[in-house]
Amino acid sequence: MNKVLSSTKLVIEKSKHVKINKDKIEEFSKNFHHGDVNHWLSEAPLDFSKLNEEEILNFLLVYSTIGFCYWGAQPWSIKYNEKTHQGSFGMISAIMKAHENGTKILDPKYRSQIHQKEFFKMLELGQNNKIHLFGERLKFLNESGQVIIDR
Fold it and tell me: Which of 84, 92, 83 minimizes the C-alpha distance to 42?
């Protein structure tokens, strides 16, 4: 049994006020048409058609690695294609903008060696534009590039 199932087993078995209706799950699964749902990438404020398959995979890896935690009283933002984006779409925009401006952010070797100053510039950080966990994002970006190189 996997960790999620085993860690929730007691709650599922002892729950008094919430039950899982397995018949309804099966009914939903049979009638669900994924074509009716847009993938989050299709809602993103950019055009992925300019990227080849390898670049898209690296783009998604970069985003998955550094695309987290956007809280704060003054949200981090980035300007891309004459619009200001925050949160997840801000990070997607920052990655694409960097790529379009010639930064090799989709190259694992570059990611494994990107320095704080370069990453700071890529995220357009400054006095009035800060992002939480900057150091952790940079560390994860370096590590993800190194793992791709090593394996």
Answer: 92
Residue type, 17: H
Rounded Cα distance between 111 and 62, Å, is 9
* pLDDT tens per residue across span 38-83: 766 677 778 888 899 999 999 999 999 999 998 877 889 999 999 9
The 8 Å CB, 24+ separation contacts for 5-11 are none
Phi and psi, residue 85, nearest 5°? -120, 145
CB 122 within 8 A of CB 78: no
Residue 59 CA to its chain's centroid (Å):
9
- Which pTM was predicted? 0.74
State the SS3 of the chain.
CCHHHHHHHHHHHHCCCCCCCHHHHHHHHHHCCHHHCCCHHHHCCCCHHHCCHHHHHHHHHHHHHHCCCCCCCCCCEEEECCEEEEHHHHHHHHHHHHHHCCCCCCCHHHHHHCCHHHHHHHCCCECCECCCCHHHHHHHHHHHHHHHHHC
What are the two backbone dihedrals, phi and then psi, of residue 126, each rounded to the nearest 5 degrees? -175, -165
